[in-house]
């Protein structure tokens, strides 16, 4: 019985490997719009797709970021300033893209822009932190998608939304995790609703990677600021010892982030160029072999594994 099961599993993965190796045709004629290209995954993907010959349209938050990207790429790549929190900026970028793609439509939309301000426990964070994070990571992503969707539908193209492993199993970063759970839900619904139009929707769920969002010094300074600005009763509840231990745990986690961004951008590229893209891509070894399996365990067991090394608050019962 086990031999038959092993053979079936092997055949499944062999068939999937064969299907996923098939590449769409005429890639050099296809336009891809990427948000958040100043740094990190977006910047790396823009350069990667440009090398492959696709027509990259890169949305950058700053002119400095746009200029640096243009200096690193070919003349095919074009940039536009985009703030995903502003409706007028999204509308202007959409018109800019429409002028360039014409009747061909937009083959690929990669929603990559994001922020991470969840440095601390859930009740340490101000409500503005939740709102600002959701405004960029979720509402901005939704608004960009809805604005660009007619162009993607015309090309029967692809939408690639950057989620996170924290959108699969949340254990820290309350505001960020909430936003990524929303991205997962929106993507699932969109994928099912757009299948009749020939549009494919994929999610990329990165694990821990070293980008501007996970800069060690900046992250630890923001965590200290969050703690210092917390109300007195919160500090009494948790205690300085808890914060110090929590700070050290987060520092170790951030310092352990992978520097190989290709593990993420290769997933994005596959979602854009494969004839049979996946609905979900778990990027990174810790995502694939720890967090994803952990998400399938009973909740009580997952809770124990994730929190067994956490410090106890001063007023813990």
From TrEMBL:
Family to which the UniProt record says this protein belongs: Belongs to the short-chain dehydrogenases/reductases (SDR) family.
Listed Pfam families: adh_short
Q: Which gene encodes it?
A: LOC110127957
SUPFAM superfamilies assigned: NAD(P)-binding Rossmann-fold domains
Q: Which keywords does this Swiss-Prot/TrEMBL entry list?
A: Oxidoreductase
Which organism is this entry from? Odocoileus virginianus
**What's the protein here called?**
17-beta-hydroxysteroid dehydrogenase type 6
Gene3D superfamilies in the record: NAD(P)-binding Rossmann-like Domain (3.40.50.720)
Q: Which InterPro entries match?
A: NAD(P)-bd_dom_sf, Sc_DH/Rdtase_CS, SDR_fam
Q: Which residues form a coiled coil?
A: none
């Amino acid at each position: 019985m086990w031999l038959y099961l092993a053979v079936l599993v092997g055949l499944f993965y062999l068939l999937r490997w064969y299907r996923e190796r098939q590449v769409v045709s005429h890639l050099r004629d296809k336009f891809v719009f990427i948000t958040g290209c100043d740094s990190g995954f977006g910047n790396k993907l823009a350069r990667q797709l440009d090398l492959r010959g696709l027509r990259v349209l890169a949305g950058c938050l700053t002119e400095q970021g746009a200029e640096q990207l243009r200096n690193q790429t070919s003349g095919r790549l074009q940039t536009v300033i985009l703030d995903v929190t502003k409706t007028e900026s999204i509308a202007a970028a959409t018109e800019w893209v429409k002028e360039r793609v014409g009747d061909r439509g937009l083959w690929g939309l990669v929603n990559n822009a994001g922020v991470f301000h969840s440095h601390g426990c859930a009740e340490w964070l101000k409500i503005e932190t939740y709102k600002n994070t959701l405004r960029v990571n979720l509402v901005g992503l939704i608004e960009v998608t809805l604005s660009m969707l007619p162009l993607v539908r015309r090309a029967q193209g692809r939408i690639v939304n950057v989620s996170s492993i924290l959108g699969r199993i949340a254990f820290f970063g309350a505001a960020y995790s909430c936003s990524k759970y929303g991205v997962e839900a929106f993507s699932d619904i969109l994928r099912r609703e757009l299948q009749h139009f020939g549009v494919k929707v994929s999610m990329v769920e990165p694990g821990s990677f070293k980008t501007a969002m996970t800069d060690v010094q900046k992250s630890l300074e923001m965590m200290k600021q969050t703690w210092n600005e917390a109300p007195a009763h919160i500090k009494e509840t948790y205690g300085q010892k808890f914060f110090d231990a929590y700070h050290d745990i987060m520092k170790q986690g951030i310092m352990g982030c992978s520097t190989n961004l290709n593990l993420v951008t290769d997933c994005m590229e596959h979602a854009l160029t494969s004839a049979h893209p996946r609905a979900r891509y778990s990027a990174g070894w810790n995502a694939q072999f720890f967090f994803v399996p952990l998400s399938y365990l009973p909740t009580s067991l997952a809770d124990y594994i994730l929190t067994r090394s956490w410090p106890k608050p001063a007023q813990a019962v």
